[in-house]
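Structural prep section.
Before we set up the soaks we want a predicted structure of the protein with iron/sulfur cluster in place, mainly to decide which crystallisation condition to try first. Input record follows.
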Amino acid sequence: MRYWRKPLDSDRVRAARGEVRIIVERCKGCGFCIEYCPRDVLVESASFNRKGYHPPEVVKRGECVNCSLCEMICPDFAIFSVALTDGAPEPAPAPPLAPSALVSVGGWEETGPPSDGDVS
Ligand code: SF4
Ligand code: SF4
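Run finished without errors. Recording the tokens verbatim:
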């Protein structure tokens, strides 16, 4: 699925980056990680593991966003991702909400809940 919208804060937010680790000998070649990776990072390799299956291999190394979907979906715990950090500063936090955007809930003021005399 491809999104057509560009997030309003895309100039301030950097996508996470990750690196995939594959435990080749655990893999049973089901292909779930390949099929469901949102960034098409993986393909079936031409090589065999000792069980005779084709494990995945990474073909788009820089595309992994460390979403861990491959890790969650693998029935044999044969793949996982680790976060990559490049030493760049963290993205700036979102600006605080303007006072006009704050909503009073239930009529409570900063002085606390209503007293017994206020309950109707
Ligand atoms: S962590 Fe996410 S983006 Fe990276 S290989 Fe796994 S499913 Fe794909
Ligand atoms: S989901 Fe796991 S067992 Fe299936 S192909 Fe990927 S690494 Fe191998």
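Observations: The pocket of iron/sulfur cluster (ligand 1) is lined by residues 18, 20, 37-39, 41-42, 64-70, 81 (CB under 6 Å).
Flagged for discussion at group meeting.
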